Amino acid sequence: MANINWRTINIDLLDPESSANFSPSSLSPSVPSVSAAEIQSLGSKIRQQLRGGDLEGALRGVLENAPYGGDGAAKEAHLATVVETLQSIKQADMSPMLSRIYSSEGGPESLDVLMKYLYKGMSHNSQSTPASNRSLSPQPAGFSQIHSRAGGEGGGQATSVLLSWHEKLVEIAGKGSIVRVMTDRRTV
Q1: In sequence order, what are the residues at sequence separation of 6 or more whose Cβ sits closer than 8 angstroms to the Cβ of residue 111?
Q2: What's the whole-number mean pLDDT along residues 27-49?
Q3: Contact between 18 and 55 (Cβ < 8 Å)
Q4: Distance of CA 143 to the CA centre of its chain
Q5: Average pLDDT of 109-129?
Q6: pLDDT number for residue 101
Q7: Going by C-beta distance under 8 Å and a sequence separation of 6 or more, which residues neighbour residue 134?
Q8: What pLDDT does residue 3 have?
Q9: Are 162 and 155 in contact (CB under 8 A)?
Q10: Which of 30, 94, 97, 143 has the CA that lies 20 to 30 A from 60?
Q11: 165, 102 Cβ separation under 8 angstroms
């Protein structure tokens, strides 16, 4: 009889349903790649809908075409389009519009995408520049004022809009939307 130390056998390799027997890459869904040019074209189409007054159509369009497979520039361009769309919708129209989207086909998934963009927009606006990177502008009075003009001044208004949308979205879609967004491996 052979001397086998039974404690050193990896029994997970013998179980066909074990996590050791599949590739972790199978956990993330495959997404088609999207170019920045396609996102810019979609952005111009969405802006045209906004100018035409079709706010709900613009919001649906921006949510249904999330560039999961895009590079960083494409995702940033789409985020700007989403924030522009959200800022153009009045607060009184938020809840009825979200209710209509939620009750339509594919609505809960669209609202989950909106939640992803809300979190990304809030994290994007909250990133402040360190003091060493801020620009010093000399003032005529002889002193210097430290400020950041590259998006720092309007960031509070955008964050306020995103927080308003977040409040309305949780009312309509529930807290489950937050959990689904946190556990989804696809990023916007």
Answers
A1: 63, 98, 101, 102, 169, 172, 173, 177
A2: 89
A3: no
A4: 40
A5: 87
A6: 96
A7: 146, 147, 148
A8: 76
A9: no
A10: 30
A11: no
